[in-house]
Amino acid sequence: MTGFSWDNLPRPIICLAPMAGYTDSAYRQLVKRIAPHVVCFTEFTSVDGIAYGSKATLAQVAFNPKVERPIIAQIFGKKPEHFAKAAKILEELGVDAIDINMGCPARQVVSSDHGSALLEKPTLAVEIVQATAEATKLPVSIKTRLGVCTRDEAFIVDYCQKMQKAGAKLITIHGRTAKQMYTGTADFSLIYKVKEQVTIPVIGNGDIRNAADAKAKLGNLDGLMIGRGTMGNPWVMREIWEAFHGETGYRAPATFEEKVPWFITHMELSAEVKGEKKGMLEMRKYLASAIKDFPNASEYRAKVVHVETVEEGRKILEEICEMLKAK
Length: 327
What we know:
By secondary structure, this protein is α/β, with parallel strands linked by helices. Helices cover 47% and strands 12% of the residues. It has two domains: 7-245, TIM Barrel, CATH 3.20.20.70; 256-326, Non-ribosomal Peptide Synthetase Peptidyl Carrier Protein, Chain A (Orthogonal Bundle). Helix 11 packs antiparallel against helix 12.
């Protein structure tokens, strides 16, 4: 038992969203070095794989206890008995809390009755939350969306009240429907309505890309979750934290040259967590997204998508810095 409680965190709570293929342990450790007070969630992970003891699945919820706490394991599935078994395993692994994904809109996830498909099956969703909460002493939370196809205040309020009654200790809501995927704009108005009708903490998620967005969208909520807004800009997590908590003196790296040491740190962390070969394979997408807005950027992106070692990545980044200095 870690003794973690959502109620004990300073408000507003600032969270790094779980993003499949991005928020692995290396990325979470990078964010925690930048913004130590934020709460990190694992990539969403199959309860079936955890229940069956899949090594590859369990690797997705591995974490560095010295750096990443509090760490919230986000899980998805549809079988209450597998949620219960997974909850016990996760508690043994030492995570601080468990979050149930009821909002992923990806077609392959929904077609399997996982993620946002549970919005259409509230009875099953209740059974899942109950089974998970009864199987562990860890706090159980959910992450969901405003609805499947339409934004309906009565529906989402009732749904979240059911989740609270079933044992959820916190609710995160992305301000879009499942049908919207990531198009259009996130609507926080219904998230504020949910907060008025439940007694547990509520966190809002969607379209938060900077501190100004965060301040404009917090409203009556207990916290905010930032996901895509961190891509290429993990420093935004520190900027948002300081915007609310009054810390001063932090300056995010403004130039490519200033960001390079962080890119190198990320490469080193990725190699440490996954081994150099796999770690650098994962790093290619991060490096490619970071190399932009300067002459010959496309040529350097073509190079980094083939890097195999930390040293290769370091040399390309240093070459870019030399090129920029010469301009």
